[in-house]
Amino acid sequence: MVSVKKKLIVKNKQGLHARPAALFVQIANKFDARITVKRDKERVNGKSIMGILMLGAEKGSAITIEAEGDDANLAISELEKIVNTEG
Amino acid sequence: MIQLKGIAAAGGISVGPAHKIGREELTVPRQSIKPEEIPVQIQLFEEALIKTRKEIVALQKRIAVEMGQEQAEIFDAHLLVLEDRMLIEEVILRLKQECVNVAYIFSEVLKKYINVFSKIEDEYLKERVVDVNDVGKRILHNLLGRERKEFEDLKEKVVVVAHDLSPSDTAAMHKQKVCAFITDIGGKTSHTAIMAKSLEIPAVVGVEEATTKIKAGDILIVDGGTGVIIINPDEETLRAYQQEELKLKGITEGFLSVKDLPAVTLDGKAVEIVANIELPEEVPSVKLHGAQGIGLYRTEFFYMNRRDLPSEEEHYQAYKYVAEEMNPLPVIIRTLDLGGDKFLSQFEIPKDMQPFLGWRAIRFCLARPDIFKVQLRAILRASVHGKLKLMYPMISGIEELQQAKKILDEAKKELKDRGIPFYNDIEVGAMIEVPSAAMTADLLATEVDFFSIGTNDLIQYSLAVDRTNEKVAYLYEPAHPAVLRLIKNIIEAAHNAGIRVGMCGEMAGEPAFVLVLLGLGLDEFSMPPLVIPEVKSIIRSIKLSDAQAIAKEALKLSTGKEVAEFSQVKLRKILG
């Protein structure tokens, strides 16, 4: 079982809301790995739109993505792209 | 007579009786259940989710055709909420812990999320509350086995008055039943405003006390342009607004008086005036402006702003709708005209150095018959629903037409094997927009049923000018002698081969150039719907013989500027 953790700053000007959030969840659901996103003390399921929205992660906030599973590495690198997209 | 003021969200004036939509609070009974009933409750929940999913997908399809892809995408968020793991897991967990009926648990969980979202200081999240509420209600309805009341039983056109309208609400409303929207909350960019605009229905939002001040059946004047609402107006006010309403329509109606008349010159030469469109929802405007068909249906939007490729069904539904709506008038569908780089998200494709000269349009399609055939099959399938023709963009030589034909034949065979009907003799045309095609039009004419001149690219390519580059944009001259000669050559080659030739670039809708093009023998002019009435009246006020003389003169001039000025002068003379 691979377990990967990555700390990131949300670069998207919409934050992890709207389309970026939807995209994040859609991508997360393509992987078998368990995906968790943390912000401050809040921990949510990365495959849940409700969870991601509850984080309220606006632009500039620090989040940590954790992935556990055989495809964890790939999952993290795909999700990182979305968090890092500035658009 | 009371006057209310809100935010003007979609223009226009409507008068009608108020139809109030209550904020429906579903009361869900709390019932204890036995532990052995839990599996049945879970199954009920799953069935409700599946049923809701089907409803949303069906709704989304209808909206995509009626209002466009963008409106339909609103419901993507609904699907995500519906399939949300956290939500589903929480419901199932609590069901097991509390042994209470699933409908009650679900409504409680839903309330919790809505509360949390409402408290977060974020505009976007506040809007999402509407989505979550909307999906939640759908699921609850299905859990409780209740039918949603839609607008089918309304007898007359009404003004819908509501605290707020969810996307599902607005989507269920048909233009035949609703003449205006009023909501207590919402802003210029709310769902209601967006939907109202695309339905072309006046809307005033953010009225605050609309639902308390307005009673069902009140006669309302809704001015979506100023945001003013008048409740039970006196006769004088009513008359003034009705006149205003007519005046608003009159601006276009006077212009449209020519719309149902044929485009025939004074000496009896008939040409065809058709429309350029990009989205199926432009069809009503096409008809309103009196187009005699669609000369260019661009299909790029299917491929834009998304990561996956459009399905055959998606293409088919849109083409079928346009074909049926326009029938018996012809519709020319242009196959995909995008650069390969637009597909970057799917394939690792190197970016072209010079995209206009690169891997795009027919070149991309011929290299990726798998993608190309999806569209071709959809066009073929839709061809039984109306008069469809298809046209390939960016043809540069005869081999490309032959290769495209081979792929089209394969697509036909695949449909035949699947036993799906299509119109075998669908007309196939080539867009002539590359100078090499213009020069060899006589050769190409033997391979196709019609030509359509794409002037935007033809001008760019033949004058070697990128018109988006402001330093050289002045060189972009539609009436440059080189362009005129190419057009003349294309038209002559087409007529010698006995095929028709149209034009779908901007030049075809430029009043001054219409005279020259008519004189050169163009058979079909394709343009944005809005300019159709103007071009039609120009054609109806000149003789073909005069246009021919003008074209002959124009061909003798030595610069694009001279040609442009000359045609302007001639046009002014004709319009008097």
Describe the structure.
Chain A is built from 3 helices and 4 strands. By secondary structure, chain A is of the alpha+beta class. In chain A, strands 1-4-2-3 form a 4-stranded antiparallel beta sheet, covered by helices on one side. The longest helix of chain A has 13 residues, at 72-84. Chain A is globular, with a radius of gyration of 11 Å. Chain B is α/β, with parallel strands linked by helices. Among the domains of chain B are: 23-144, PtsI, HPr-binding domain (Enzyme I, Chain A, domain 2); 256-430 and 510-575, TIM Barrel, CATH 3.20.20.60. Chain B is built from 22 helices and 16 strands. Chain B has helices spanning 38-67, 69-82, 85-98, 102-119, 123-144, 167-172, 191-199, 210-213, 235-255, 283-288, 312-326, 361-367, 369-382, 398-418, 435-439, 441-444, 455-462, 481-496, 511-520, 532-539, 544-556, 560-575, and strands at 2-5, 7-10, 13-21, 158-162, 178-183, 203-205, 219-223, 228-231, 272-277, 294-297, 330-334, 387-392, 427-432, 450-453, 500-503, 524-527. Chain B has an 8-stranded mixed beta sheet with strand order 1-8-7-3-4-5-6-2.
List the helices and strands and how they pair.
The complex is a heterodimer of chains A (87) and B (576).
Chain A: E1 3-9, H1 18-28, E2 34-39, E3 42-45, H2 49-55, E4 62-68, H3 72-84
Chain B: E1 2-5, E2 7-10, E3 13-21, H1 38-67, H2 69-82, H3 85-98, H4 102-119, H5 123-144, E4 158-162, H6 167-172, E5 178-183, H7 191-199, E6 203-205, H8 210-213, E7 219-223, E8 228-231, H9 235-255, E9 272-277, H10 283-288, E10 294-297, H11 312-326, E11 330-334, H12 361-367, H13 369-382, E12 387-392, H14 398-418, E13 427-432, H15 435-439, H16 441-444, E14 450-453, H17 455-462, H18 481-496, E15 500-503, H19 511-520, E16 524-527, H20 532-539, H21 544-556, H22 560-575
Parallel strand pairs in B: 3-4, 4-5, 5-6, 9-10, 9-16, 10-11, 11-12, 12-13, 13-14, 14-15, 15-16
Antiparallel strand pairs in B: 1-8, 2-6, 3-7, 7-8
Helix pairs in contact in B: 1-2, 1-5, 2-5, 3-4, 4-5, 11-13, 13-14, 19-20, 19-21, 19-22
